[in-house]
């Protein structure tokens, strides 16, 4: 091997290591309630805006890796990983892929827990949930 080939290989290795060092580690997926803000005072009818990063929102019905839909739990906590989230007055499902909803709650303090679930309504667990509190006047 001549000097030029050696230098070319060293340069290639340096570029590969440089690119590897510059790439940022991928952040774990997470959900958030964009609106209302945590601790906000809202009217009895108010808009909720939901978001997810690191995964995609998809209509429920089938399991597709890296996707799910939003469920909103009123005055309750996040569902454990793999638990089916049943629909009732406290567990609101947005299985058509919605990322916005209008809620109607009675006056008082309430917690809203956003939960991401797979296509078969099974929770992705605590790591893909987010809880805020609101005061309804």
The top level CATH class name: Mainly Beta
Task: Give the name of the CATH architecture.
Answer: Sandwich
Largest β-sheet summary: 6 strands, mixed
Q: How many domain units?
A: 1
Here the CATH topology equals Immunoglobulin-like
Q: Any idea what the shape is?
A: elongated
CATH superfamily membership: Immunoglobulins
H/E series: HEEEEEEEEE
The counted number of beta strands is: 9
Quote the average pLDDT: 90
Percent in helix: 10-25%
Q: How many DSSP helices?
A: 1
What is the CA-atom radius of gyration, in angstroms? 22 Å
Termini separation: 79 Å
Q: What percentage of amino acids are in beta strands?
A: 35-45%
Report the structural category: mainly beta
Poorly predicted residue ranges? none
InterPro entries: DUF4399
Protein name: DUF4399 domain-containing protein
Organism: Mariprofundus ferrooxydans PV-1
Domain DUF4399: 48-137
